[in-house]
Amino acid sequence: MEINKYLDSTYLKTSEQSGLSEKETLETVLSLVDEAIANNIFAVMIRPDYVKQVKEYISDKTADVKVGTVIGFHEGTNSTEAKLGEARKAIDDGVDELDFVINYEAYKKGQLDLVEDEVVQCTRFCLDHNKVAKWIIEIAALTDAQVAEITALIAKWITENFPGKEDQVFVKSSTGFYVTEGGKPNGATFEGIKIMLDHAGKLPVKAAGGVRSPDDAEKMISLGVKRIGTSSALALLKNSGSSAGY
Predict the structure, then answer these.
(1) Whole-model pTM?
(2) Is 241 part of any domain?
């Protein structure tokens, strides 16, 4: 199984979070890109600030690694207008894929019109520019019933508004930055992914966070996920576990 073709190799820490300088952070990001190129990894997932530099870096190396970024990261409470602004800048910088954090707090409060509006508007903007959109639902912040419902709602809204383009819109499990209590996992779990897959309709599913071994990756793929987000891509491909946070 070519696990590398499913991977989004991810580095989303800010300089403040990592304790690195801006220069060191950029070097870390470019090292991630080099690893992705060397191992034929499908995509790198980075902060918006680095998209333009990374696209130019990959172009200079004539490599075929996609560049993704996060929008509304990591709590998802930004307004739709703010998310569209971030998306516009990222697309102008050359990004290939955009992973939006859905406003799951608004969803939990029953503000479904607000959530539907952001999903439809932001997805339309991406599709109009021939970009892939992914919607992060943050499963660690939701009950199993909520995971099922919000996944089904996203699938419904996408199918109703963009029939025939469902394969360009993913539902994604996690940011990897949500803080849980009692040591509970904050990323993808097999149980959570099964629920998402059962309710995603025609939409592909991305498992993010917590996949740190080839066995985990192969099991996720066998369940039906189409993409895996991990900060442990190289260790995963080298058949060694990792304690990295994502």
Answers:
(1) 0.96
(2) no
